[in-house]
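How a chain folds remains the central question behind the approach discussed here. The record that follows shows the chain in one-letter code together with its fold in token form:
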Amino acid sequence: MSAASGRPALPVVCVAGRPIGASWPAWIVAEAGVNHDGCVEKALRLVDAACEAGADAVKFQIFRADELATAAAPGAAYQRCDDGSQRAMLSRLELGDDAFARIRRQCDERRIVFLATPFGRPDLARLLRLNPPAIKLASTDIDNVPLLRAAAGTGLPLIVSTGAATAAEISDAVEHLGEFGALHRSILLRCVSQYPAPLHDVNLRAIRSLAATYDVPVGFSDHTLSVEVGAWAVAAGACVLEKHLTLDRTADGPDHAMSLNPEEFRTYVRQVRALESALGDGAIGMTDGEIDVRRVARKSVVASRALPAGTLLTPDVLAIKRPSGGISPAQFDQLAGRRLATPVAADTPLTWEMLQ
């Protein structure tokens, strides 16, 4: 319970020393993914672009194509597999260990958090050599119990996407995270696994539903083409945002077309931060900026006409007018039956010193 409010404390997970939860600014992750096209120099430029756009973290994907997909695995329509082979496409998007070491160094130099998604236990082992502050698990692996178990066993915070998962599958995954001792350091992401995701399927209200059901921080993995939905998601309760970033939306590759370019990503971040500023801290009461308007627009109890000393105060000799500074209208009823100690001119705000 919160000592100040008596309400249950909101769940918080710390990543790289940064608290993530409903009472903190949204943690924005630039999803570089495979938009480097298998080129480490592009990957480094994506790190720079994410940093300059104001992202808190930049995320890549670690995999070996032959470990991730069979030769017969077909590609999805959005993946643009010219030969129909998902494995062939993925092989062109692999980065080696040396490349990821350079990416990690670049993130450290630019002071942006490095993240990556492993797709199997060998990928997780490679990722751990890079000393990540957290592990992101893709929606496709929400039912991958061996990977969930291995990721939970690292002791690191887990960010788990829930795209294309049924309510039962999400509940099963959460139950496993609890069994593996990782639920208290897990963050769920509301996600729609469509590329791009249409607005009518986004269902931002599900963010608070997930948070209420599982009592964990919940974010939003944003696959829309909008620069505005991130701010909407924060208004709906998201504490993490994940959004694809590309250097060129027209480039070949599975994710470029549904990603934001650097300028669009800067707009995305600005809109989120503006929304957070407008949301405020939820405290009830006036702001400092209202003081001047309050001073000139509030009212006092005044004499409705010139009144001699000794006048018995009744409603017909009193009025309520601007400015403030005299007896407040909130105390109007307390004046009944009191008498003036001094004469008062018309429209003079009354003070308690004027009364007998």
In short: Confidence is low (pLDDT under 50) at residues 1-5. Residues 262-279 form the longest helix (18 residues).
